[in-house]
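Hypothesis: this fold can be encoded by more than one sequence.
Test: take the structure tokens below, design a sequence, compare later.
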């Protein structure tokens, strides 16, 4: 049986550091994560598995071994170390492989479960199993739980499972995006739905355009700055070049009252298609002109260079003339552009220059 990748909530990591792509200039804030999700570690785990625990999680001829294991797990969870939790999780996963129809059985147990830790461990087991995620009945049940489950941790766990869809389903997509945009839902659940949609965009390029458009709608309607930031971050961190229409939609957030939202919008505008480059440069140059924070201006300048590379020279020159506090940074970039053409490489070389001067990248050391 093939194993699907479990996107642990810390690496929603949409959305975490791995999901942040780890690229120069993509220094984004902490990602959204499903509500109340405890991240169970991956093997190997520290700690010794006691023989009594090994026996505890072995099942013989029980008529309902999955339920038996879940009940035993619930009764003993607080006494287990990380290695023993992993052992229990792996035993459940093996049963899933060994028993035909076990995936739906486990999904139904998930629906009935109320213990937060057990719920989220079951979610990891289901989400990690490629065969389980290929079963329409399992996916449909997880979508129903995410939409209307009675246990908050169950709803968040169901969204965690749905992150691993092997293919996008229109109805499930509408459900999750509807949760992301619903003002009636708790902000944590909405953030979880955004994270699920972000994971889909990374795994399914064909869904990037419609999902990113929906998330920008979420951002436009969100009164909560954190939710707005989560939605924009999800769009900005997708590994693709923005087209002109997406540039215009994202650029609208460069004037947001929240500084983090502005920086996340700029992050996305730093990666654009060739035909969208002039618009991105125009918007970023305009944002630099009205940004009052020196640190904010320097961050915007990074993304202007990322967006334009060698084509950013004229905009850089104008920025240097208007803002004395950025003059040294502009000189650095113009000098580097003489020999380096890759925007991300330019950013790296600029950081080396700053460090050689004893300047902490991003620190406000300039004065007008």
């Amino acid at each position: 049986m093939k194993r699907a990748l479990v996107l642990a909530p810390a690496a929603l990591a949409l959305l975490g550091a791995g999901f942040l792509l780890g690229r120069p200039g993509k220094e984004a804030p902490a990602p959204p994560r499903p509500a109340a999700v405890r991240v169970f570690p991956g093997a190997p785990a520290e700690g010794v598995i006691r023989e009594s625990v090994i026996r505890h999680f072995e099942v013989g001829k029980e008529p309902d071994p999955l339920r038996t294991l879940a009940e035993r797990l619930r009764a003993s969870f607080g006494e287990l170390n990380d290695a023993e939790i992993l052992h229990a999780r792996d035993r459940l996963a093996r049963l899933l492989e060994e028993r035909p129809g076990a995936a739906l059985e486990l999904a139904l147990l998930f629906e009935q479960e109320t213990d937060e830790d057990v719920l989220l461990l079951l979610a990891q087991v289901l989400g990690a199993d490629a065969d389980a995620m290929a079963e329409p009945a399992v996916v449909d049940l997880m979508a129903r739980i995410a939409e209307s489950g009675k246990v908050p941790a169950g709803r968040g766990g169901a969204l965690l499972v749905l992150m691993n869809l092997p293919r996008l389903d229109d109805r499930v997509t509408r459900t999750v995006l509807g949760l992301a945009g619903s003002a009636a839902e708790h902000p944590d659940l909405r953030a979880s739905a955004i994270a699920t949609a972000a994971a889909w965009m990374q795994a399914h390029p064909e869904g990037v355009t419609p999902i990113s458009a929906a998330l920008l709608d979420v951002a436009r309607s969100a009164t909560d700055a954190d939710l707005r930031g989560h939605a924009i971050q999800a769009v900005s961190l997708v590994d693709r070049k923005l087209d002109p229409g997406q540039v215009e939609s994202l650029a609208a957030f460069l004037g947001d009252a929240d500084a983090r939202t502005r920086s996340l919008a700029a992050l996305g505008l730093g990666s654009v298609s060739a035909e969208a480059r002039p618009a991105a440069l125009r918007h970023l140059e305009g944002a630099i002109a009205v940004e009052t924070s020196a640190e904010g201006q320097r961050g915007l300048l990074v993304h202007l260079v990322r967006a334009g590379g060698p084509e950013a020279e004229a905009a850089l020159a104008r920025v240097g003339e208007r803002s004395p506090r950025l003059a040294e940074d502009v000189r650095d970039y113009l000098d580097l552009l003489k020999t380096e053409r890759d925007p991300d490489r330019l950013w790296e070389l600029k950081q080396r220059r700053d460090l050689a001067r004893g300047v902490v990248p991003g620190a406000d050391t300039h004065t007008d």
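DSSP finds 19 helices and no strands in the chain. Residues 1-240 form a domain with the Leucine-rich Repeat Variant fold (CATH 1.25.10).
Hypothesis status: open.
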